[in-house]
Amino acid sequence: MNLILLAPEDIRHDRLASVRDPRRLRHLREVHRARVGDVLTLGVQDGGIGRGELTLLSDDEARFALETLDTPPPPALPVHLVLALPRPRMLARSLEHVTAMGVKRITLLHTRRVEKSYWQSPELEPAKIHEHLVLGLEQARDTALPEVDVAKGFRPFVEERLPQLLEGRRGLVAHPGMPSPCPTGLSEPCVLLIGPEGGFIPYEVERLLEAGCEGIHLGPRILRVETAVVALLARLF
Amino acid sequence: MNLILLAPEDIRHDRLASVRDPRRLRHLREVHRARVGDVLTLGVQDGGIGRGELTLLSDDEARFALETLDTPPPPALPVHLVLALPRPRMLARSLEHVTAMGVKRITLLHTRRVEKSYWQSPELEPAKIHEHLVLGLEQARDTALPEVDVAKGFRPFVEERLPQLLEGRRGLVAHPGMPSPCPTGLSEPCVLLIGPEGGFIPYEVERLLEAGCEGIHLGPRILRVETAVVALLARLF
């Protein structure tokens, strides 16, 4: 928690914030070892960043006197990430990694090799997803909450949704064996598509390429999704 | 397990391998859904890669008839990674990530902000470290086992060990706020040093720079060690 992210309901009035959830209270006590009088970095969800003085720390509340929170969050990555739904624990970690790296649009996609049971995981509940996004933002000192949606059918996604996403954006399908190495130093908007463990099936790769995406690879090593997604983002931008 | 990594003791004779540990047997059954007659990819630790036919699968043994295992493993990264010892679970995942990416030399370093208790973790036992290295190799279809050592004193490391490591290698200290962005597309040998959660302390950064390392950064976002290490390797090479 390199930044204490304030939800709108944490702000009592212009100059006072009150944090009451056990996770943040525990973190303030155990990791920050915070004491009344400490000045910490805070940010408002989808707003600015600044400092605040801890004026009260009790079992169920931390209260901050806020200075001006007007520093903008770090720049976002110009990418819409389309991720074949990983298994639940890998989803959780991947959401934290990519949020910390600055991804702001994430679509979780069903593909042939996604296990159907993953769609029933509690990790997909909005509150759980929100929790991982917040952890990623707190880590990276960011305030801009990513948007996450789901596409539970591959064909409707490719036929109806992808053409819109590709308007004004470069489409990149990361898949082992594709002809081009992952490009570097991009600044234009992209859609980055990453398959599940075991990869996209050949039919899916064909449809994505037909839709106008370029196939890219990360070399001969096959990486786990959570490793590959970080490596791709780090190399692309 | 994109490759079944055979330890020397798994090889009965020239053309026969026998796998007996529960982890790999379970994986063969549950993930590969392997049946007698299936041909799978195998590799010999620190040796070549090839195919083998499953000739027996019982509760306590999988037996393979080996073809020639003469495909070399994928290229290694020319980097010696010096990682401030992360907390145990992050160590485990980081070892898997960096092994999958092709790192072959890893030194785990004590620095001021490494919690002393981490050095007592069971994750540091050679057998546990070996397990994570093997998982990384199996993921990336590699056979060359990384070497991992520890440096439990920062000063002896900087004064005695680092000068040797930097002979013929470029030293890079990844630390927020350093003047240069992380370089890309390197092919020369490097030593990459990464601090703990909370970073190196200023004294440590100074000593590393004095020793001849360059300070590099990944931008304004503060990443967790396991995210940063993947992002740095992906960008450097």
From TrEMBL, chains A, B:
InterPro entries: Alpha/beta_knot_MTases (IPR029028), RsmE (IPR006700), RsmE_MTase_dom (IPR046886), tRNA_m1G_MTases_N (IPR029026). It is found in: Cytoplasm. This is Ribosomal RNA small subunit methyltransferase E. Keywords: Cytoplasm, Methyltransferase, rRNA processing, S-adenosyl-L-methionine, Transferase. Its EC number is 2.1.1.193. Specifically methylates the N3 position of the uracil ring of uridine 1498 (m3U1498) in 16S rRNA. Acts on the fully assembled 30S ribosomal subunit. GO terms for molecular function: rRNA (uridine-N3-)-methyltransferase activity. Residues 76-236 form the Ribosomal RNA small subunit methyltransferase E methyltransferase domain. It is an enzyme of class 2 (transferase). It comes from the Bacteria. Coiled coil: none annotated. Its main location: cytoplasm. GO terms for biological process: rRNA base methylation. It catalyses: uridine(1498) in 16S rRNA + S-adenosyl-L-methionine = N(3)-methyluridine(1498) in 16S rRNA + S-adenosyl-L-homocysteine + H(+). GO terms for cellular component: cytoplasm. Belongs to the RNA methyltransferase RsmE family.
